[in-house]
Give the backbone structure.
Amino acid sequence: MLLVKTLRSSTFRLALLCIAIFGLILFAFLIYILDASTNFGIAQSDAVLNGDLQILRETYEELGQEGLTGKISRNANDPRAYQGLFLLADSNYRPVAGSLGQWPLSLPQEPQGSGEFNLVLDSAKTRGFRAQWTALAGGAHLLAAIEITDLRQFQRRLAYAFSFAALFIVVVSAASGVIVTRRTVGRIEGINAASRAIMESDLQRRIPVLGASDEWGQLAANLNSMLDRIEFLMGEVKQVGDSIAHDLRTPLTRMRARLERASLRPRYAVDDQALLASTIVDLDDVLRMFRALTRISQIEASTQLRTLDLSLVAREVAELFDAAAEERGSRLEIDGNEAIEILGDRDLLFDAISNLVDNAIKHGRVRGLVRISADADENGAVLAISDDGPGVPADECDLIFRRFYRSEKSRCTPGNGLGLSIVAAVARVHGATVKLSSNQPGLTVELQFPPPTPAQKSARI
Amino acid sequence: MQSLRRILLVEDDPELSAEIAEFLATESYQIDQALTGDEGLRLGRANPYAVMLIDRMLPGLDGLSVIQQLRNEGNEAPALIISALGEVDERVRGLRAGGDDYLTKPFALSELSARVEALARRSSTILKETILRAGDLELDLVSRAATRAGKAIKLLPREFKLLEYLVRNQGKVVPRSMLLQNVWDLHFDPTTNIIDVYVGRLRRKVDGEDAYPLIHTVRGIGFCLRAPG
């Protein structure tokens, strides 16, 4: 099964193509080396033969046929002289003198030329020779030959070695192609199997991470963190669903009970009026919560940002909340009058900052101090809202950004637990990070906006 | 000139349509109802309307196309788009298609009525006064000064703008969302009661302790500035 998949896989086909291309290149290269080394040997032999023929021709021209035959036989008997074969033939290529019995059959009978022939000598072993011949004055022919058996043998061995090497390389690369592909296909199969299992509703399952630092390990780790995120979001959705069910059920049940009771008792205009008014108020609460929920998903889908002044928005919020702070006897201070340009959406920022300031006033100390400050440096703009209230316990810092999260202590204050989720969603849209820190005492919430892009910078200049 | 009180309502849900029609009828409007876009277009071409209420999503011809066609034919009756789609982009698209206001479902009938009222007024009167009055409250729009029975009231610029809006709409219930939109230029519903607190402070400044109250809270809806008599 895996082998079939391996052979069918695109990786393996690609590997085969590569092997074929490299094999061809290697083959051509080896042929070239073989050919070049052989030619080098032949050229050397030819040079030697050429020299010999030159000397013998000069001997013939000076001393005549006897001188030449003498020199040839002296050469034949001299162990120090070159052990080549010589043949002096007449104009009809019949042997006259020399160590070769006859004009080699495989050589053409031409006045001059070069060629190769085989000879079976005493040991019944076929030996290869390279010959060169020339015509002498008076119609005779002189042929010199040199043994090239070793060269041929060297050439053969080289060819064997090269063929073997080429075969070896092709086989090894094909095998490693199969192995690598198989490994790849196996890893992919693992991921596929895990994905199928996850699709069949086992969301807890994770892709096995083998070899954590290679790219496969990274892929598996990335997919796993994606699954973690999905699981977290699904958990959040479930939690939100549960919270909605809880928070909506209460006013809805109350309304239902009220209406049911009213339907059973006699009609009095005054009671009915009060009933209708309180039912509408309850229903408005439900609708407001519903709107806040849909707003979060809208915020997360919205993308249109334009340049605006963050500190102006902060001042507008501060002005709006001044009355609310006054009501609790608190002071609301704002630092920073300089314009801070960021890419943003005024409605969303206003909403987010309102929520933070509202929280700071509500959860801060009565007759406390709430500070809003807007600053900017090369790392981007920072908006901080701090109070001097009881603060948030460290273990709740992550939780408070979950939809509907309300700390046990704050269950009794008005609100629906969606404010900070809206802040988090607005921050995400702006690429900003939200940081909570202790103001000792109190809580500081910081929105760190990303630094302006070079295009924005140049647009400002 | 007697102001036009005829309204076109294009809404495909018969029950909601009936509720709206009945509610607006109590405000002495005359309502023509259409359940489809094509019918709405036909009525819009045939009659002059003070305001057209058009649902965004309709069977057949959709709400935006109805408005666009009527606008192309030179019909300038103000249009209020009613939609279940609340995204900012949707609002922008609606206003670009020729709508004059945008209301997201679910909404309070009183808010719908306040917006219809505002649109109807827009088509009939243009305010050119430099001094606005409500009872013994006087707003000088040029010097941006407010006085109550001749006594100066110290107001922040935004408070003045808010009071001006309430005085311009005196006698009418103004929903919170309309205040946010027209005084702060914000297009969302705050999850907090901040507007109430803000208006509360304005009320303390304007109404004080001895004067009779001008600014009233209408529970669950918004505010109303009413001069006695």
